[in-house]
Amino acid sequence: MARDRRSGILLHPTSLPNSWGIGDFGPGAVSLLDWLEQAGQTVWQVLPLGPVGCGFSPYSAQSAFAGNPHLISPQMLADDDLLPPGALDLAPEFAPGGVDFPVVSDWKDALLRVAWQHATRTATHRPLVNEARALGEAPGYSIWLPDWALYCALKRRFGGEPWQRWPQTYRLREGATLEVARRELEDEIHFQQFCQLLWFRQWAEVRAAARARGIRILGDLPFYVALDSADVWAHREVFDLDEEGAPNAVAGVPPDAFSDTGQTWGNPLYRWDRLAAAGYGWWIERMRATLRTADLVRIDHFRGFAGCWRIPRDAEDARAGAWTPGPGLGFFTALRDALGHLPLVAEDLGEITPDVRKLRRDTRLPCTRVFQFAFDDPSSEHLPHNLETDTFFYSATHDNDTSVQWFEDLDAARRRRVSDYTGAAESDVHWGLIRSALTSVAQTAIFPMQDVIGLGGAARMNLPGQAEGNWGWRLQEMPDTTTAQRLRRLTEASGRLGAEPPSAPTQ
């Protein structure tokens, strides 16, 4: 039905424009939603929203449950009287056009501590402070927040070192040691809970603004978690670790289009046997928490549920890895039994074997296809005329170069093939990809904002296999009305303006 067809934009909140060095949940998010409504878009896709760790990658978060405090809006803090007068006047000069993560991290952390001290000293904020102090016992928080807040407090005590380098009694979570630490670090623990309270409150306001405009939030769930994370520290039993907490093997992918030697990600692998024996409880709670933050959820690296690339921890590169079985359909059966309907999207890209295809069919989840992958083979499943209806179709993803740069880097024969297929002039190829995606049979079409604007390679979000220098691109300002109107006309012509508005989130 036409009303089921929809389209939207991929833009991580860190890429939103503002004056504070990194995009956040403040006025820039509302401006984006206004622009999406003007452009006729009904989906906003974000990358994972957790607290970033190594390399500032949202796919290497230090918690599978917590929100990234760097996304808390300073402007909203000031508007809510959670900052003393003049606090924002002390902000450093941020470089335009990107995110300087170390500078932003230091400033945001200091600003949030100022907000906490201001709140604790202001009588009108006493209910908020009390709520933050009790948050670790609240429904939906008690299963993860106490561990997260204590992990953060201990990490600060030990100079930011990974938990594997903490003193043994802390590393092994000996009860008496942790009980003393909770008393000694009580204020820091409450501060961390305060940050999470602010994060979830501000994100709830963004989601309400999206619902009011008929826009769904498409979230992103990484398959793996970071080794240095509260989850691995607190739940070592569900990860494949040795007695010292080091991984017996690490995750990655075999050689592919992005790398001749494959990619070694370094994440610990799951002990699926133990998870299955426990009814997949940790994963069920993780999924439940994620579904509270989004209307739809993209499962990154879906193929990991069929099989994972297991790389010996001392291997030189990912070529030494081998496939090891994942949990299969039983995992999704357990999720559905616990949570009911699952509004999930399978990111089934990369080396996709028959068992992955079967699992995706058996789970009845929409698949993912990418236009940039379509032009090496006339029978490619990424070409619009070969798509299944139940598809989320992208011009590009956060791991691809921008479509303008991708096209410029093609050889002459492939450029001609793209122009012939899309009917677009070379100077307007990004719009040719967008138009072809919108008019395809795919249920949902998604475009990185960089493709809608027509930006070059300097606006690339991530280069897989490159550990540093990613994730920092930012918009300088919202695209103009002419761009919104052009996108709206194409969206209307392709029958994608009538999507059902999202329902209220599950509490």
Structure characterization notes:
This protein has 18 helices and 12 strands. The chain is globular, with a radius of gyration of 23 Å. It has helices at 27-38, 74-79, 101-120, 126-134, 145-157, 168-171, 175-184, 186-212, 230-234, 272-277, 281-291, 329-339, 354-363, 403-409, 412-422, 429-438, 449-453, 481-493; strands spanning 6-10, 43-45, 216-221, 249-253, 263-268, 296-299, 307-312, 322-325, 344-346, 367-370, 391-394, 444-448. The mean pLDDT is 95. The longest helix is centred in the middle third of the chain and has 27 residues, at 186-212. The two termini are 30 Å apart. Strands 9-6-3-2-1-12-11-10 form an 8-stranded parallel beta sheet. A 4-stranded antiparallel beta sheet has the order 5-4-7-8, with no helix packed on it. Strand 1, helix 1 and strand 2 form a beta-alpha-beta unit. The chain has a domain at 366-451. It is of the alpha/beta class and 507 residues long.
What's a concise summary of this model?
By secondary structure, the protein is an alpha/beta fold. The protein has helices at residues 27-38, 74-79, 101-120, 126-134, 145-157, 168-171, 175-184, 186-212, 230-234, 272-277, 281-291, 329-339, 354-363, 403-409, 412-422, 429-438, 449-453, 481-493; strands spanning 6-10, 43-45, 216-221, 249-253, 263-268, 296-299, 307-312, 322-325, 344-346, 367-370, 391-394, 444-448. The protein has a domain at 366-451.
